[in-house]
Write a structure and sequence with these properties.
This protein is α/β, with parallel strands linked by helices. The chain folds into two domains: 3-195, no CATH class; 220-554, Alkaline Phosphatase, subunit A, CATH 3.40.720.10. The protein has helices at residues 3-31, 36-55, 60-66, 68-84, 91-99, 102-111, 113-135, 142-168, 174-177, 181-198, 200-203, 268-276, 293-299, 316-321, 330-333, 344-353, 396-424, 457-460, 470-475, 477-485, 496-503, 546-554, and strands at residues 212-213, 222-228, 255-258, 261-262, 303-308, 326-329, 359-364, 428-434, 439-440, 448-449, 464-468, 491-492, 506-507, 529-531, 537-539. The protein has a seven-stranded mixed beta sheet with strand order 3-11-8-2-7-5-6, sandwiched between helices. A two-stranded antiparallel ribbon has the order 1-13. A hairpin with a 5-residue loop joins strand 14 and strand 15. Helix 1 crosses helix 4 (68-84) and helix 2 packs antiparallel against helix 8. It starts with a helix and ends in a 6-residue tail after the last helix.
Length: 560
């Protein structure tokens, strides 16, 4: 190859490398809602930095490989842009990467293969050729490098004052809006949160609820809390859905279904602690030094059990579950993908073995977690076709069929637990809710899955179901009457912890009676709150979009 053509090749490589580096910023300019000057800063400032780095050496391929961390973040962010439609790698997503099992990660990647393929096509060939070019000692001529350094200086001269002016408006910040700075900041926050989780046992060691049970020991009662996974209220027949997803619960006497319940988080590692501890979106930090529901009931003399079909991930979920007298993670002793029904024999054994004591049993199911068709056996398939090959908007009918099949399985699971409680003959209560919901290409936004940087109606609207035995209603008619009376109230997932305490007749020093649906002190909130990726409490109007409020109106829900 002639020297002139070699030199031209490296000039082309120089601009190709710059294009790949700035590509995530170009995509974010399309997906993000920000003023034009914010988008100009989002492009110009990083581009000036990349241009400068590429000019530091006469060997552009070497500089490109030195930018590998930025390239990795860019590739990751492009995949998430495909998944969520907007946003950058959030704190919760970093934590999901750290806490997800290999099976969960594999399931998600299998559903995102179009974006993964696109990223491979963009990044792998350029990195591979850059490695070859480094080996062959490719260089740029001095005149070209000098000229590009002048361009880099000009870009920086324009970018810096623009950045200052943009930040001065108060509508844009480096830590929140500038890629890749915001992603690195989110990674730092994720590391700090993981460290907080690891210190939890030490920080909460001496915490006590000073809990006492005011209900008579002579009548041993059973409370069961079932925590669903990724179950959205929009697909529950008993909440107005037009498909037969609740064939058993719809025929079960005594069901009380709340139609307007919202989760305070769309990520499991935060939504479950809100269910199992005094933490709320408005005061989430209380979680870091206090114990949870199982510890409170245990203090009050209940025998407590936590049975989970979720993978262990060393998060607060594990810590709160391990505060029970009996803790069982199915996946500790079972290989493959255990079905939720495998928890039922443990429930039966607990009911028989502790019949002379008050009991609290918490069941953490795997429910409707993607891939949906893996949650049930082939013979349990009801809606067809349901063989999910890949997740795209064009395959929504198949996805919905498989998802609705998981709701039917949850319906059967809950009905099975209720039958066990009835057969025990003891005063008993069951409460079911889900950690969060799920997007399944429901509108023009094309959103899919959950744990996105910002939530949607489908991720937040969750089922909340109560069932009380006749014996429990006879003993505690005031509690059950209050719950039934409030079935149309706008509530959130922070009601579960205090409501369970009231249903168990437990008094503690942690007073949240205004959130308890079974307490006379209960009050409807003026505003409902969501816990953001940065653990900030915001009202619904600050985190939802117009399409979401259309659904609120459609389902006669309070939009605040």
């Amino acid at each position: 190859m002639q020297p002139q053509s070699i030199d031209m090749k490296h000039k082309v490589l120089f601009f190709l490398y710059l294009t790949v580096l700035i590509l995530p910023n170009i995509i974010l300019c399309v997906t993000e809602t920000m003023p034009w000057y914010g988008k100009a800063t989002l492009l110009l400032l990083p581009l000036s930095v990349y241009w400068t780095v590429m000019c530091l050496s006469h060997r552009p391929s070497k500089a490109y490989w030195c930018m590998f961390p930025v390239l990795f973040l860019g590739a990751f962010n492009i995949v998430l842009s495909y998944l969520f439609g907007k946003g950058v790698i959030a704190v919760d997503m970093w934590l999901n990467v750290a806490t997800s099992s290999p099976n969960e990660a594999g399931e998600m990647l299998a559903q995102l293969y179009p974006s993964v393929i696109a990223v491979v096509i963009i990044y792998v060939p350029t990195l591979a050729y850059a490695a070859y070019d480094i080996w062959s000692k490719g260089r740029l001529d001095h005149v070209f490098v000098k000229r590009q350094r002048m361009v880099a200086c000009a870009l920086a001269a324009a970018a810096l004052p623009l950045t200052g002016a943009t930040m001065a408006t108060g509508k844009w910040s480096l830590l929140d809006d500038l890629f890749p700075v915001n992603v690195c900041y989110n990674l730092k926050l994720a590391v700090e949160r993981q460290a907080t989780s690891l210190k939890y046992l030490e920080n909460s060691r001496d915490f006590r609820f000073d809990a006492t049970c005011m209900d008579a020991d002579s009548v041993p009662q059973v409370l069961v809390l079932v925590i669903g996974e990724t179950s959205r209220a929009a697909n529950w027949q008993i909440l107005g859905y037009d498909r037969d997803t609740n064939p058993e619960l719809s025929k079960t006497d005594g069901i009380i279904a709340f139609r307007d319940c919202l989760s305070q988080s769309n990520a499991t590692h935060k939504s479950v602690p809100i269910l199992l501890s005094p933490a709320t979106a408005e005061d989430f930090k209380v979680l870091f030094h206090s114990k949870g529901l199982l510890a409170a009931f245990r203090e009050a003399g209940y025998h407590t059990a936590f049975i989970s079909n979720e993978p262990r991930n060393h998060s607060f979920n594990d810590h709160l579950g391990e505060q029970a007298d009996t803790t069982i993670f199915l996946r500790d002793s079972m290989s493959g993908d255990p079905k939720d029904s495998l928890m039922l024999p443990y429930v039966s054994e607990l009911l028989a073995g502790k019949a002379n004591r008050h009991q609290l049993i918490v069941l953490h199911t795997y429910g409707s977690h993607s891939t949906y068709s893996d949650r049930y056996e082939d013979y349990q398939s009801y809606f067809h076709p349901d063989n999910v090959v890949h997740a795209t908007a064009s395959c929504r009918e198949v996805l919905i069929n498989a998802y609705d099949n998981t709701i039917r399985l949850t319906d059967h699971f809950l009905a099975s637990v209720i039958r066990m409680l009835e057969q025990s003959g003891r005063p008993s209560a069951l409460v079911y809710t889900s950690d969060h919901g799920e997007d399944i290409y429901d509108d023009e936004r094309g959103l899919y899955l959950h744990a996105s940087p910002w939530p949607s109606y489908y991720q937040l609207h969750t089922p909340l179901i109560f069932w009380f035995s006749s014996g429990y209603r006879d003993l505690y008619g005031q509690r059950t009457g209050l719950v039934a009376k409030r079935r149309n109230d706008p509530v959130q997932s922070d009601c579960i912890f205090p409501t369970m305490l009231t249903l168990g007749g437990i008094g503690t020093k942690v007073c949240q009676d205004s959130l308890s649906l079974a307490s006379k002190a209960y009050r409807i909130k003026q505003q409902r709150h969501y816990l953001t990726d940065h653990n900030l409490s915001v009202t619904l109007d600050k985190c939802l979009e117009p399409q979401d409020f259309v659904q609120f109106r459609k389902h006669n829900m309070r939009p605040y």
